[in-house]
Amino acid sequence: MMALVVACACNAEDITIRYKGTTAKVDQKVKDSVNITVSGAHVEIESLYKSHKLTLLLTGKSDDGQLVLKTVGKAKVKLEDLTLTSQEGAPLWLKNKKKVEVVATKGTKNTLTITACNDTVNHKAAAIWAKDKLLLSGKGTLNVVATGDGCRGIKSKKDITIEELTLNVTTSGNNLGEKPFGFGGFPGGFPSFGNDSIKPGNFPMPNFGGQMPNFGGGFPPFGNDSTMQEEMGGFTGKHKYVASTKGITSKGKVTMNSGVLTVRTSTPGAEGIEGKKGVAFNGGKVDIVASDDAVNANATIEFNGAHVTARSTGNDAVDSNPETGFFMPFGGNNNTNSQEADTAIVVRGGTVYAWSQVGSPEEGLDCDFSPIVIEGGTVFSVGGGMGEMPSVPTNATAKQPTVLLIGLNITKDEPITICDANGKRLDTITIPFSMRRSASLVTCPAFKLGNTYTVKTKGYEKTFTLNEPFTTVR
Asked: Which of 87, 167, 226, 473 has the greatest number of C-beta atoms within 10 Å?
């Protein structure tokens, strides 16, 4: 039975929702401009406030509940020991026109779970789905769990910002479908590499810094999950997954300012963090393990001060595909009068451990030959590289001395140590998988031009001198 309540809210917690099993009790300050509909443990709220920030408090537990919040102005949703599971669609569905802040209150543990995403038209396919900007904050813990097929963890059509919060995101459902795409002899048009489309026209050669890269005996496949197209004599195209179970995805930018973030995905095509307009790690601690790219963007990925461990079990660890990147001359570039590529990856500070465990051609840091800039911080990447020519900085963009180690043999759980000429340990890394002849990009604030350093493992030791800002060691 449906009940309609008219309410107006203007103080600290304008509306409190207490979930208990199959029911939800709504307590509000009674005025105007807010319509509330309750059906069992499903609550729909529509706020017409423009200047007032509507504040809600959610608490309790339900195995079949949901909050649908439609707001004209800004809103804050406070979670206080909330366990909310939806059997169909987003348990927290935000139809916001302005930014909504979701806050895990201090000292509380909160869990949002989505178990099915069959009706993706009427019920959004993510544990948290937002139409506009989304801020995830608070000094509590928020667990986001997506178990249903095609269900994502967190999705927004605009920017997502994370700060202070301890946020754990896990997805485990299957994809709703899969459709391979490739050249197919070009009868149906040109294919897509990553997210950039190739279109017919003039094909000026990309700028590779004065030399063509070595692809190790042929043009490489663009992805580990590729299928061969017979019409092209064996050229490779990637699979495209329908409703892949990504961890955090935004059509805007994803920014991590502080707090602790853990992301886990397990099905093909399921990226850890995807920000179409970029990803920025400004602070905090980040740990991502994804079956596809751990971090992916169609714009610049920035590492400014966070401690980031990004690991992919089936693709690149960190993958930037800027629209003005490697395939810019073939189309998909809004700035058609310029051949200058946007910066794909920039490291200014913090720690970046980027590990791809599947071997060539997947990389720890992949920028499709767009610029990668190293200004500071500690970096240790692991990948197979593209014919021993992975995405690397140049002498101009390696503003902090950086080395590419080709042929480093990695043994699972065996420490890798970097020392200076006096034997002082600069960093120790333990990789959770084995790889023969990896390509590793390495730098740290202690690196100085002209100095000698040593990288050691149980079965490998290499001493090198940083004669240039960017040095390759085989």
From this structure: 167
Where do the DSSP E strands lie in 243-370?
248-250, 254-256, 260-264, 273-275, 279-281, 285-290, 295-297, 301-312, 318-320, 345-356, 365-366
446, amino acid identity? A
What is the identity of the amino acid at 46? E
The owner of tokens 């197209």 is: 229
Structure tokens at 257: 């300012």
Measured distance CA(400)–CA(395) in Å, rounded: 10
Please, are residues 26 and 69 in contact by the beta-carbon 8 Å criterion?
Answer: no
Q: Which candidate, 345, 134, 98, places its Cα nearest to that of 250? A: 134
Per-residue pLDDT of the chain (474 residues; tens, 9 = 90+): 444 443 443 447 899 999 999 999 999 875 679 999 999 999 999 999 998 899 999 999 999 999 999 999 999 999 999 999 999 999 999 999 999 999 999 999 999 999 999 876 667 899 999 999 999 999 999 999 999 999 999 999 999 999 999 999 999 998 876 655 443 333 333 333 333 333 333 333 343 333 334 333 333 333 333 222 222 223 334 566 677 899 999 999 999 999 999 999 999 889 999 999 999 999 999 999 999 999 999 999 999 999 999 999 999 999 999 976 554 433 333 333 334 668 999 999 999 999 999 988 899 999 977 899 999 999 999 998 655 556 899 999 999 999 999 988 899 999 999 999 999 999 999 999 999 888 999 999 999 999 999 999 887 889 999 999 999 998
Look up residue 216 and give its DSSP letter. S
